[in-house]
Every structure is written in structure tokens, then in C-alpha cells.
Amino acid sequence: MLSYQHAYHAGNHADVIKHVCWVAIIEYLKNKAKPFTLFDTHAGAGLYHFDADEAQKTSEFETGIVKLNSETFSDETVTRYLELCAGYTRNRQYPGSPALAADALRSGDSLHAMELHPAESDKLTRNLTDRGEGHVHLHYRDGLEGLVAMAPPRPNRGAVLIDPSYERLEEYAEVVDAVAATLARWPQAQIMVWYPLLSARAGKKAGASEAMRNKLADLAKTAFYADLTVTEKETDTGMYGSGVCILNPSWQLDETVTAALNCLAPSLADNADATVNWLKTEPV
Ligand SMILES: C[S@@+](CC[C@H](N)C(=O)[O-])C[C@H]1O[C@@H](n2cnc3c(N)ncnc32)[C@H](O)[C@@H]1O
């Protein structure tokens, strides 16, 4: 059962933290001339319209990208993210993760974007078909299965975005299993997993993200997480923020992510708060 549609949520505060961190990872990889491969296991439709019925129903884009658009930021990563978004937002659109990656890649780099929902996959194909001279590959398939099957890429430099909708409680465990299988084949993979931060009102899913990121950290050589909360946990009806767990991060990526999130948090909400912590470091 795949009922989640990202069009209701595109451009919200959760997309902002996820996409800022994804852009930071890609820009770090671009510091070296050697080509790299990106995998986006849950790609979505790739492009969203603020005036679409779904977006108008929730107006969630107003909790994220719209708040940042009217401001100028000094942080390099936030600036780069907004630069990548600008061509879309000026047309009342928001780029999904595969569009951001496709725009940021160099001609020798590659992207594999996977989407399992048939209608979303069709939209992804329509929205990204003209991108990248042969180095953007779109797959209608299960992204976790596809990632394990395609790992490691050649050359084996690269990064992975895992961004499920967590509609089912079992998805948390499925992510851990897929990451374990991927790292067994591609130990140096840099893997970013997005997760929602859910209050007790989410029932069994409350705390599942925090438990998952601890299990993920056990699998990697090094790992840190970055959370961005936008409302108080106790008063929120559901998702009070979200975060990313980054396994095998590039050197000093934590500092870049900390600076970016601290820079944009005050613009997202009065009591927005960013936290970055290491879960696993190299033994000294
Ligand atoms: C949160 S959305 C992705 C948003 C996108 N990553 C972005 O940031 O623009 C999750 C997507 O995963 C898709 N999906 C769910 N299960 C999947 C699976 N096993 N493999 C690939 N895609 C899946 C859903 O249809 C949905 O479009």
C-alpha cells in the first residue's frame, strides 16, 4: 500500500533540513575532481507546484521554503541550497531531492533515483527526463532493494539519500536492514537517512526514529545526526521536527551542517532549534 504523496508536504521545514544537508553532502563530494554516484532511494515526483490542489490544501511550503525566500543568508550551504531552489520558486515550484541533485551534479557524476509508486514514478520520468546528458537514471522500483542491488557503484565514491514516508512501522527496520546490506557491499558509502521526530501522539511510531538512528550508527565507521525542531514536543499534534542521520560523513561535514542549520533555524520558527551530535566516532 503506497498512499503517501509528497505533493502535500513539498517545501516544508522537513524538506528544508533534508535538502540543505543533501546539498552539503553533494558539494563536499564536488571538492574532488573524481566522479561520484548518488542514489536517491525514495525519489518522489521530483517537482512540485505551490498552486497544486495538494499543496494548497496544507500550505506546508509556507512553513519552510517560503520563510527563507525573503531573506539573505551568509552561510555558504544555505546560500547554495537557495540558489538551486531559486529557478523553481520564482515559478511557484519546489524541486524534489532528485531535481536538486540533478542540477548540482557535474557531467561526469551520476544519479540513480528510484520511486515505487506508479503515478509518482510517471511524474518523476516526465519531470526529470531532459536532465543530465545520460547521467541521471530513473528507476521504477523498490529503492531499498535497488540500492543493495546496485552497490557498490564504479567508481565507488558516492552518497545515498534514504527518505521513506514511514507510513508503516516496519519501514524503520527495513531501512536498517537495507543499510546493513549496502554497507556490507560498499563499506565506505556515505548514507543519509531522513526521519520524522514524532510526539507521543504518534503512538507506536513515537521514539522509532531515535531507536533507528542508534541502530544505523552501529553499522557505520562514523555517524552523526542533525535534528531541527520547530515546535515543542509536548504541545505538538504529530511531527514536531525532523532530522537526518549521516553515516560515514565527509570530514568536517558536521561543522558545515551545524552552521547551516543554526543559520536558518531562527527564520523557520520562533522556537526552532537545531541539534547536531556524534553517534559514533573513529577510535582514537
Ligand atoms: C518522502 S517522499 C520522497 C521525497 C523526496 N525524497 C524529496 O525529498 O523530494 C517518499 C516517496 O517514497 C516512495 N516510496 C515508498 N516506498 C518506496 C520504496 N520501497 N521504494 C521506492 N520508493 C518508495 C513514495 O511513493 C514517495 O513518493
Automatic annotation (TrEMBL):
Family matches, as Pfam families: RsmJ
Site feature Interaction with substrate rRNA, where: Y4
InterPro entries assigned to the protein according to its UniProt record, in alphabetical order: RlmJ, SAM-dependent_MTases_sf
Binding-site list for S-adenosyl-L-methionine: H19, H42, S97, E115, D142, G143, D163
Active site (catalytic residues): D163
Superkingdom field: Bacteria
Keywords: Methyltransferase, RNA-binding, rRNA processing, S-adenosyl-L-methionine, Transferase
EC number from the UniProt entry: 2.1.1.266
Catalyzed reaction equations: adenosine(2030) in 23S rRNA + S-adenosyl-L-methionine = N(6)-methyladenosine(2030) in 23S rRNA + S-adenosyl-L-homocysteine + H(+)
HAMAP family: 23SrRNA_methyltr_J
Subunit structure: Monomer.
Function of the molecule: Specifically methylates the adenine in position 2030 of 23S rRNA.
Similarity comment text for this entry: Belongs to the RlmJ family.
PANTHER family reported in the protein's UniProt record: RIBOSOMAL RNA LARGE SUBUNIT METHYLTRANSFERASE J
Name by which UniProt lists this protein: Ribosomal RNA large subunit methyltransferase J
Organism whose genome encodes this protein: Alteromonas salexigens
Source taxonomy: Bacteria, Pseudomonadati, Pseudomonadota, Gammaproteobacteria, Alteromonadales
Gene name tied to this protein: rlmJ
